[in-house]
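Inverse folding, one chain.
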């Protein structure tokens, strides 16, 4: 969700039967790594937080990977990115692929949420 000049990404594990801290850690790390592949290695979050207690032995590793302040024992697992970075048009971007991806996602959401009239209308428009 957007919050002022930042994008706040919350990583939730409540839907897992046995959530483990390493699942949240790996989800956060994979997300940042994928963003760095697309944006560039210079991408750094503003802040990262984890619900688990962390360890003084490895807290430096977290900071080294995320390259920003990292909080443990937080209320939520979150990654906070600068909105200007998130909204930057990448030189490697492909408008046609982005439109195809949007169509696929809208169709997927419409098939799985039959009560969402807005998504149903978007699918109908895209199908024309």
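Residues assigned per position:
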């Amino acid at each position: 969700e957007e919050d002022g000049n930042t994008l706040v990404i919350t990583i939730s594990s409540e839907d897992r039967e046995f959530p483990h801290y390493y699942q949240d850690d790996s989800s956060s790390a994979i997300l940042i790594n994928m963003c760095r592949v697309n944006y560039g290695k210079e991408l750094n979050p503003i802040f990262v937080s984890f619900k688990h207690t962390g360890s003084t032995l490895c807290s430096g590793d977290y900071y080294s990977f995320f390259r920003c302040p990292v909080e443990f024992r937080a209320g939520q697992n979150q990654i906070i990115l600068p909105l200007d970075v998130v909204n930057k048009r990448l030189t490697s971007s492909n408008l046609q692929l982005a439109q195809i991806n949007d169509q696929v996602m809208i169709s997927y959401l419409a098939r799985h949420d039959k009560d969402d009239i807005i998504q149903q209308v978007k699918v109908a428009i895209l199908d024309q």
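The helical segments are 21-39, 59-66, 83-86, 95-112, 117-127. The chain has two domains: 2-86, 95-127.
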